[in-house]
Amino acid sequence: MIELETLKTQSVGELVKLARKLQDELFQAKFQHATQQLKTPHKLRELKKDIARVKTIATQRRHEALAGKPVTPKPVKAAAPKVDDASKSPAGGKAPKAAKAPKADKPAAKAAKKKGA
Predict the structure, then answer these.
(1) What does the alpha-carbon distance between residue 15 and residue 60 come to, in Å, rounded to a whole number?
(2) What is the spatial distance between Cα 51 and Cα 2, in angstroms, rounded to a whole number?
(3) How far apart are CA 26 and CA 46, in angstroms?
(4) Residue 11 — φ and ψ, nearest 5°?
(5) Rounded to the nearest 5 degrees, what angle is found at the Cα of 115, between the Cα atoms of 109 and 117?
(6) What CATH topology corresponds to 4-66?
(7) Is the Cβ–Cβ distance between 38 and 29 less than 8 Å?
(8) pLDDT tens, 46-91?
């Protein structure tokens, strides 16, 4: 596992090279795993997480360079609690449907159609 502090001290170019190296290692480890030669299968997970760490730091550095200031992650907003409407209405939370109005017959229009056809 790569230490986060060492990643933060490296430049973007070094991070890109390190990500490429880790991807090559992951590729080789996948082949070893498929041929039953990989002694430590958890190495696959560690390599994937290391690649993600390296790419994350590199992306943050690129954004810092573009914006000219450090990028801090946005705080996650908590979801608003849902209000249980079932206790408020007797129909179990559903509003009653309105009755449909009957369709108006248009005898003059029907008669004109029959005469014209």
Answers:
(1) 11
(2) 9
(3) 9
(4) -80, 170
(5) 100
(6) Helix Hairpins (1.10.287)
(7) yes
(8) 999 999 999 999 999 988 888 876 656 666 666 666 665 555 555 5
In angstroms, rounded to a whole number, what is the distance separating the alpha carbons of residues 94 and 41? 53
Quick one: which of 7, 47, 3, 10 has its CA closest to 25? 47
* Residue in the block written with tokens 């309105």: 98
Residues 101/103/104/107 CA torsion (nearest 10 deg): -170
Q: Copy the structure tokens of residue 25.
A: 């290692």
Indicate the burial class of 15 (C-beta count within 10 angstroms; 0-12, 13-18, 19 or more).
buried
Q: Could you state, in order of their start, the residue ranges of all structural domains in the chain? A: 4-66
Question: Using one digit for the tens of pLDDT, what is the confidence trace for 88-107?
Answer: 555 556 666 777 777 766 66
Instruction: Tokens for 68, please give them.
Output: 């000219």
- Cα–Cα distance for residue pair 103/21, rounded to 1 Å: 73
Does the pTM surpass 0.85? The reply is: no
